[in-house]
Amino acid sequence: MHLQLVTGSRTAYDVVIAGCGPTGALLAAELRLHGVRVLVLERESEPAPFVRIVGLHIRSLELLAMRGLLERVLERGRRRPAAGFFAAISKPAPKDLDSAHAYMVGIPQPVIVRLLEDHAIHLGAQVRRGCAVTGLEQDDKGVTVELAGGERLRTRYLVGCDGARSTVRKLLGVGFPGEPSRNETLMGEMQVGLPQNEIAARVAEIQETEKRFWIRPVGEGTYSVVVPAAGVSDRTEPPTLDDFQQRLRAVAGTDFGVHSPRWTSRFGDATRLAEHYRIGRVLLVGDAAHIHPPTGGQGLNVGVQDAFNLGWKLAARIRGWAPDTLLDTYEAERRPVAAEVLDNTRAQMELHSTGPGARALRRLLTELMDFDEVNRHLIEKITAIGVRYDFGEGPDLLGRRLRDLDLAQGRLYDLLHRGRGLVLDRTGRLAAGGWSDRVDLLADTTAALDVPCVLLRPDGHVAWIGDDQQDLDDHLSRWFGAPAG
């Protein structure tokens, strides 16, 4: 694929995205919905050779449904109850969670990456593999991106979706304060030499006190093995089979006869949050902006939700209709969400500790989660359906996402596939007027809402509630810019 190089101040692309994981691929697709010229650069020449199962939580499934992707995910993944997330405390899913997609989906990471990358390419995004960003310079008109080998590209905006060791973040000089890893865990998939019933019995015994330990079958005679490491080491070096054997014997008294590893890795509990999500024309998304322990399975999901929040706003800026402050709301909304995720993972890691105080606290919280309100609060926190952005004073629904309603014209989320705003009007009296090129209007007097009208942003969050046309126009201007001529 031939690429245009820098020629004067001309920009070859509207947006260059560094990193083609789920976050980068999804952001590219969101931008392409609005006709933005997008190039995605991926450092690795080939996808990761190992197959790690990742979990998609309720809010991420809702967002995928909004773009018509959910059925494709369900065909390739496995549904599981929305339960047992918080500190791996085994409690059933709360009853009547406020979502039409109140479950989680386990799916191999290479599968979700390929699905989202194919989706972005289908919409017109370009993807280049084996391209590492090594430098950047920005001015008031755009960003010059330098690649390994010396190639230089010109773009209006650069977005770093390049993970915890983000090169883009480092080149920007953005601080990444927080705590380094204090604990490390080995993870891999391999064969074992004991019968399944013996493994299950021993694992259940060990997990009474050690919550960072499991051996679970993943199919074809292969097991997922997770065991605490002896200390913190260089995470760029994968653990060996001997490392697993030693740690299994130390923790469980047996190495279970593990052999023939398919892949191995290690993860720590470092917790860090970028000081800024945006410097000029360069932005950070996903793990480039925040890292935390994997307990609760929130990492990929927070990145996906970042991408949905940013995509339409950056597209609006490029298309020329964004209000002056719209792009600033990306950091204002998403950084506090990440800070809360960091806090809940810190709490969960403490509850994983084996000391007597932590074990007593875990027993107490386990009792408290028998109360539906407590269990519901924690599940809504982990799955992000409890997120409420600060849009000012108003009803509790303001700033929250709206569930997938059954409307006279079909499902609500099916009406959001194009990434546009939506006025859902139960009065039949309101209009979107000069914003019809950016916002759809649906009059449905039978909609199951206890408010007269809502304005939905492209990410499904409620930006306004009311029944007054002038008030609606004011909020359309706030979120979608000036009306067309």
Automatic annotation (TrEMBL):
It comes from the Bacteria. SUPFAM superfamilies: FAD/NAD(P)-binding domain. The keyword Oxidoreductase applies. Its cofactor is FAD. InterPro entries: FAD-bd, FAD/NAD-bd_sf, RIFMO-like. Keywords: FAD, Flavoprotein, Monooxygenase, Oxidoreductase. This is Rifampin monooxygenase. It comes from Actinomadura physcomitrii. The gene is rox.
